[in-house]
Design brief:
Layout: E1 5-7, H1 11-18, H2 27-30, E2 34-37, E3 42-48, E4 54-60, H3 66-71, H4 78-86, H5 100-108, E5 110-115, E6 117-122, E7 129-133, E8 141-146
Antiparallel strand pairs: 1-2, 1-6, 3-4, 5-8, 6-7
Amino acid sequence: MCGRFSQSYTWEAAQAFSLGLTDRRSAAIVSLPRYNIAPNTDVQIIRPSPAGGRELILARWGLIPREWQRRFSSNSSQSLLKKIASSRFNPPLEDVETRPAFRDAFKKQRCIIPASGFYAWTGPKSDRTPHYCTAEDGHILAFAGLWDR
């Protein structure tokens, strides 16, 4: 996934996209468009619902492995957990199945991250130019994601 993206679509578009979005309470989440989402920000994800079907929920962008949450559960460690999440928002595909930080979520807790578009950057590091990329037909894009509690 990219380093920045946007989520701006209607509830009806989200329902059509997800093929089974069942929780109508999610409509309030969709009504807040955002155009420059960065790691450690709350994002909309679609995951299987415990009641059946799919649900759209808010989740922080950046995976903190469950065992690390237990290890660093004190209030003084919260900034450390945010740093960990910031460094774990875009793992290489070949690592998610084998690296301990992603392995459990990859096996059991996958999700879809709907997006209106994403930013790709070109040029040298000292002078980067952002390009906003969307689907040509304007439909929602789907990013593969992992989630954990």
